[in-house]
Design brief:
By secondary structure, this protein is mainly alpha-helical. It is about 70% helix and about 10% strand.
């Protein structure tokens, strides 16, 4: 089955891997694990706090990975958890966390925005539309397996 990969799919997979590697390099340069960076990025994207369930959904990380990263972020005084309900928690940035997030996830978002700003607007829209179409089609294919 692996021999059936088309050249375009192989190229796509290579590009996804290289993008992931670039994000990993940035996380490392910022002194963060990949999971810590993804959590801070998600919180930054949401403001200064974010429900834990939303972090789980948007990062795609396992609950165990998120819990381990959150424990470390808590120990370092970057985040704290506050209850939203008996089963739900909110992950909040401390003052130190706000500063760290601006120096890390905030800078990453600025880089991403600069990339999109350098493209013609119609290319940005096309890229997003095609990525979304790919996601929906892949989910449909995945649903067949379940």
């Amino acid at each position: 089955m692996c021999d059936n990969l088309s050249k375009k799919l192989k190229r796509y997979n290579y590009l996804v891997g290289e993008i992931d590697a670039t994000y990993h390099e940035l996380s490392t340069k910022f002194g963060l694990s990949d999971s810590m960076m993804r959590i801070l990025y998600t919180i930054c994207d949401n403001g200064t706090d974010c429900p834990l369930q939303k972090i789980c959904r948007l990062t795609g990380l396992s609950k165990q990975t998120i819990n381990s990263a959150l424990r470390r972020l808590e120990q370092e005084g970057i985040v704290y958890l506050e209850p939203l309900s008996p089963k739900n928690k909110n992950v909040c940035l401390t003052e130190a966390g706000k500063q760290l997030t601006q120096q890390t996830a905030g800078r990453l978002q600025a880089m991403e925005n600069a990339v999109f700003a350098s493209w013609p607007p119609e290319d940005v829209e096309k890229y997003i539309a095609l990525t979304e179409a790919y996601l929906h089609a892949l989910r449909e294919q995945a649903a067949v397996l379940c």
